[in-house]
Every structure is written in structure tokens, then in C-alpha cells.
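Hi C.,

You asked whether I'd gotten around to modeling the 83-residue construct. I have! Everything is below, sequence then structure, no commentary in between.
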Amino acid sequence: MLERSARFGYRGQHPLPALVLLDLKLPRRSGLEVLRWIRSQPHLATMPVVVLTSSSEDEDIQKAYALGANSYLQKPVAFNGLV
């Protein structure tokens, strides 16, 4: 959808999201790779991206901000903590 592929190319029907919530642990590529790609796309450069992940590693936090994350939130393990 973010790539403007043919399936999602018509913005009247498929507008861009107002915000991206991004986990770092994704099945096919890391969230940091996705963030790097988002920030390299001129039409997405100003889209707010919030990293919402279980990682509290300082290295992950620093990389996310260096790549242009607007915020970094560590999600709690328990569901009630997330709510």
C-alpha cells in the first residue's frame, strides 16, 4: 500500500495512513529496514512513524531515531499494560 502498487494506486479509494505503527520484529524484514525505506520515499518522508515494540535495547532505540522514527514506545508484555 505504501509503495503505491497497482492494487492500491488510486488514493481516492486507498488513502495513505495518517500514522504508521511499526514493530521491529517482522516476519520478512526488520522494522528498521521498513523505516529506512519509508524515509527514503519522497511521498512518505513526513509521515509520522511510531515504533511500538517489545525491545528496550538502547541500540534499537538509537537506530530507530537515527532513521527518522517520530517516537519509540516499548510495548508491555501484559495486555492490560498495553491498554
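If it helps when you're writing up: The chain has one domain: 16-82.

Thanks,
B.
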